[in-house]
From TrEMBL:
Listed name of the protein: FAD-dependent monooxygenase
Top-level taxon of the source organism: Bacteria
GO molecular function ontology, one term from the record: monooxygenase activity
Xref: SUPFAM superfamilies: FAD/NAD(P)-binding domain
Keyword ATP-binding part of the UniProt annotation: no
Pfam families tied to this protein: FAD_binding_3
Record's keyword annotation contains Oxidoreductase: yes
Gene3D superfamilies, sorted: FAD/NAD(P)-binding domain
Domain named FAD-binding: residues: 3-165, 282-315
Keywords attached to this entry: FAD, Flavoprotein, Monooxygenase, Oxidoreductase
């Protein structure tokens, strides 16, 4: 059985690693040139029941604990005047919660756990054609091809594999502008202290200014605004972003001013909660390809759990693995996707501060 995994993100790599632990070979086809081709994003909080569970099944718990930062779970929520609304402090060294880890570090842990031939770099799939008798013929952007018996789409929001199973539409739920203040511990110690060791959210009407303190000492700054019809380039400068926070405390907007270089702006999209598709032998999806959700803390965790559960299903009964996995995944993801949509809407509402305080501290 030849298993092809389209996409070398966290879900695809988790699947490949656990399949290998069960002596099942799979090849991950990744469009990037190598693991260093681009930065991999900010911090992830890995949940015990999903992301951490998947790493346990992958045999990588010790590596994770050696790299993760439990102190990164500290979370501060402020209002536009800089007043603290919520301040969550984890217990020192406590891995029982949701410790943070840099996304790039986590991806490296997974890559290091695979043999060198498990990932085919510079292989961007542009077409998957069903073969007579089952399986697929894969065509890559440079004209090369490969055959497989099973194809797993782990290729993210703009999945090439997804249309083979569903035409579920993507809808814009927010605009996100990302910036980085490099070496903030040394260059901007006052901002590093403001953010703390983990996450900072500054919440106002219909907008959020957030920052993460990465293990490298950089601050990753994000501005989240409501999705609208404006062109993304209208948010493409620090000046344009600062205009969105007129009247906010200067100590908060300094996060934008301190960033190096212009913002990277993109629309955040999501699939309809409850998306399903009819079972098709030899073909399935994991992660964002299967259930693209607003980025409120579940995406990477659920992608890794998808990979773990699909691998376990193949190890138990290859003939029914995909159907078994999909039925369980649909039941699991439905409520999580609905909750993620509610949280995203709440975070960008006119009364976001009050609603978020109630969400994180309901007894206050």
């Amino acid at each position: 059985m030849r298993i092809a995994i389209a996409g070398g993100g966290l879900g695809g790599l988790t699947l490949a690693r656990i399949l290998r632990r069960h002596d099942i070979d799979a090849v991950v086809y990744e469009r990037e040139a190598d693991r260093f081709a681009r930065t991999q994003g900010g911090l992830l909080d890995l949940h015990p029941e999903s992301g951490q569970h998947a790493l346990e099944k992958a045999g990588l718990t010790d590596r994770f604990r050696a790299e993760a930062r439990p102190e990164g779970e500290e979370h501060r929520i402020l209002d536009p005047a800089g007043r603290i609304l919520v301040h969550h402090r984890p217990e020192p060294g406590d891995f029982s919660g949701r410790p943070e880890i840099d996304r790039g570090v986590l991806r490296d842990i997974l890559l290091d756990s695979l043999p060198g031939n498990a990932v085919a770099w510079r292989h961007r799939i542009v077409e998957a054609t069903p073969r007579l008798g089952g399986g697929f013929r894969l065509t890559f952007d440079d004209g090369r091809g490969a055959d497989c018996d099973v194809l797993v789409g782990a290729d993210g929001a703009r999945s090439v594999v997804r249309p083979l199973l569903t035409d579920a539409p993507l809808s814009a739920v927010a605009v996100l502008a990302e910036l980085t203040a490099h070496d903030a511990d040394r260059r901007h110690p006052e901002l590093a202290a403001l953010v703390g060791p983990g996450n900072l959210w500054c919440v106002g009407a219909n907008r959020i200014l957030a920052a993460q303190h990465q293990g490298s000492g950089d601050l990753r700054v994000g501005v989240t605004l409501r999705a609208d019809e404006r062109h993304l380039h209208s948010y493409g400068s620090k000046r344009a972003l600062l205009e969105q926070f007129d009247g906010w405390a200067p100590g908060l907007t300094a996060l934008i001013e301190a960033a190096d270089g212009p913002p990277v702006v993109r629309r955040i999209e999501a699939m309809p909660a409850g998306t399903r598709w009819a079972h098709r032998p030899g073909l399935t999806l994991v992660g964002d390809a299967a259930h693209l959700m607003p980025p409120v803390g579940e995406g990477a965790n659920q992608a890794m759990l998808d990979g773990a559960e699909l691998a376990a299903a193949f190890a138990t009964d290859p003939g029914s693995a995909i159907k078994t996995y999909e039925e369980a995944m649909f039941a699991r993801i439905g409520p999580i996707a609905a909750m993620s949509a509610r949280v995203q809407a709440m975070m960008l509402s006119p009364t976001a501060a009050d609603e978020i305080v109630h969400f994180f501290a309901p007894t206050r």
